[in-house]
């Protein structure tokens, strides 16, 4: 034990002489940054955690930011363009169940994170090479490889958060991570089109080579995320030696046989999840040209308005998370979010009102739904089945996104944007109907999904007594 204590002290300080000599202020700050038990060190780890997912979220919506350029340079219709999103989702229909298992039982959190971010980096490089070599099938392959790493990296990010910030700080940490993810998406939407035009001016012409070079430069954000993953692995291993802390575990126990025990309210939550998210992400994937064609926006202005959902989500997700924590009434908040989204799509479809209004409403409702819907699973499922329930929810969400992305592209190619918006309105109407059914079923069963926070606390007290 004495040797371990000496090793810990050696890791934390420059040596015994420094400790005796009355270290200056700069040295004290450095000492705090190097001590895993101190707040300064944990803030450094938090910064690395936030930037860990930045590259993945930045590159996920590269196709949306460059829709015009991809369709023109690669000579593909909207159906083929939307395959770039479908191929991202297909591997995650399965990996939602395997990601946690691979982190816990095979790689460990440190190697798992590094491996998943490597898939993201390699996928982005293949995606860019598909442009350079004018091979759309190579771009599709790149998005598939990118997808293998993308969602599992989010699981690893959350595992690090739980490992370092258990307790009351955790919700704030999750909120900050989500905010950084949305900032990555926003920067992508507003930067990639400008970057393409600069490379086009430099090379003297547009085309697949210009597209590929733009995507390759965008991939630098993935390299930054890889550096963060390596730094996190080092700091986590170091903290394990100094504080004798264990490697983080996802806490996911996946048993597919548990699916047969899922209740009707839980299945309704799954339907709401799919019905809602398929009208947000595929719409953003196709939104840029919609704003150019219907409202006459410039390319830069269309990119800006298409990113409004992410811009609003960055600051509002933590705020709405706190609001739902304080008030409860989850079903009512979900009902508000889905209704607002329906109104937003109806405004975009049937009016010529300034689309900033509809997109701001969509951004607010998107942020609110995430805070109110996902926690409800934990109210319905015992702790040992949570991993299975959340894994299944993410799996069918990705299945829905893959299928609806393809259908949306086909509708746009054959019928146009008005029919596409009607299709999205139908999808969100299914989600709205499911929310109403969830409210009625929950009320009939005397369920706790729509309890206020005070009612939940009283229920927990009565159970403990």
Topology diagram in text:
Elements: H1 2-12, H2 16-20, H3 25-34, H4 39-52, H5 54-60, H6 62-65, H7 67-73, H8 78-132, H9 136-164, H10 170-203, H11 208-218, H12 220-243, H13 264-277, H14 281-295, H15 299-306, H16 308-327, H17 330-350, H18 355-373, H19 376-380, H20 386-414, H21 417-444, H22 453-464
Helix pairs in contact: 1-12, 3-4, 4-9, 4-10, 4-12, 5-8, 5-10, 5-12, 8-9, 8-11, 8-12, 8-20, 9-10, 10-11, 10-15, 10-16, 13-20, 13-21, 14-15, 14-20, 16-18, 17-18, 17-21
Structure explained in plain terms:
The protein is mostly helical and 465 residues long. The chain has two domains: 218 residues, Growth Hormone, Chain: A (Up-down Bundle); 211 residues, MFS general substrate transporter like domains (Growth Hormone, Chain: A, Up-down Bundle), CATH 1.20.1250.20. Helix content is 82%, strand content 0%. α5 crosses α8 and α8 crosses α12.
Shape category: globular
Classified by CATH, the class of the largest domain is Mainly Alpha
Secondary structure category: mainly alpha
Give the total of domains: 2
Report the sheet-strand fraction: under 5%
**Fourth CATH level, the homologous superfamily of the largest domain:** MFS general substrate transporter like domains
Distance between the termini: 43 Å
Helix content: over 70%
Are there runs of 5+ residues with pLDDT below 50, and where?
1-23
The CATH architecture category of the largest domain equals Up-down Bundle
What are the main properties of this structure?
465 residues; mainly alpha; Growth Hormone, Chain: A; 2 domains; globular; disordered N terminus
């Amino acid at each position: 034990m004495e040797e371990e204590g000496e090793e810990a002290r050696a890791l934390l300080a420059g040596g015994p002489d420094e400790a005796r000599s009355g270290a200056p202020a700069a040295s004290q700050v450095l000492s705090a940054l190097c001590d895993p038990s101190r707040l300064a060190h944990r803030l450094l780890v938090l910064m690395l955690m936030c930037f860990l997912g930045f590259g993945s979220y930045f590159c996920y919506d590269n196709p949306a930011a460059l829709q015009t350029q991809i369709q023109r340079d690669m000579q593909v219709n909207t159906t083929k363009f939307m395959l770039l999103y479908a191929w991202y989702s297909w591997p995650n229909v399965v990996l939602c169940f395997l990601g946690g298992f691979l982190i816990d039982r095979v790689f460990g959190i440190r190697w798992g994170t590094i491996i998943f971010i490597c898939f993201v980096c390699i996928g982005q490089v293949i995606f860019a090479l598909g442009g350079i070599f004018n091979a759309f099938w190579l771009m599709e392959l790149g998005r598939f490889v990118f997808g293998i790493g993308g969602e599992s990296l989010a699981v690893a990010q959350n595992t690090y958060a739980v490992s370092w910030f258990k307790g009351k700080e955790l919700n704030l940490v999750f909120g900050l991570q989500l905010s950084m993810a949305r900032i990555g998406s926003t920067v992508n939407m507003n930067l990639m089109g400008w970057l393409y035009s600069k490379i086009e001016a430099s090379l003297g012409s547009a085309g697949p080579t210009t597209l590929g070079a733009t995507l390759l430069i965008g991939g630098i954000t993935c390299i930054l995320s890889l550096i963060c993953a390596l730094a996190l692995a080092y700091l986590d291993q170091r903290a394990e030696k100094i504080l004798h802390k264990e490697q983080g575990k996802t806490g996911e126990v996946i048993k597919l046989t548990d699916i047969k025990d899922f209740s009707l309210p839980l299945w309704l939550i799954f339907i709401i999840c799919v019905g809602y998210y398929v009208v947000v992400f595929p719409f953003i994937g196709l939104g840029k040209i919609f704003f150019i064609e219907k409202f006459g926006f410039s390319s830069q202005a269309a990119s800006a308005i298409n990113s409004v959902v992410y811009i609003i989500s960055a600051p509002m997700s933590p705020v709405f998370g706190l609001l739902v924590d304080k008030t409860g009434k989850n079903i009512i908040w979900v009902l508000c979010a889905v209704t607002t989204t329906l109104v937003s799509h109806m405004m975009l479809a049937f009016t010529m009102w300034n689309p900033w209004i509809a997109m701001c409403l969509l951004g607010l409702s998107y942020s609110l739904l995430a805070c109110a819907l996902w926690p409800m699973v934990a109210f319905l499922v015992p702790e040992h089945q949570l991993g299975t329930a959340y894994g299944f929810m993410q799996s069918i969400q990705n299945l829905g996104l893959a299928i609806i992305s393809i259908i949306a592209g086909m509708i746009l190619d054959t019928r146009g944007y008005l029919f596409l918006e009607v299709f999205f309105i139908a999808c969100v109407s299914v989600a709205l109907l499911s929310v109403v059914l969830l409210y009625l079923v929950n009320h009939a069963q005397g369920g706790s999904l729509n309890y206020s926070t005070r009612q939940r606390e009283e229920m927990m007290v009565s159970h403990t007594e």
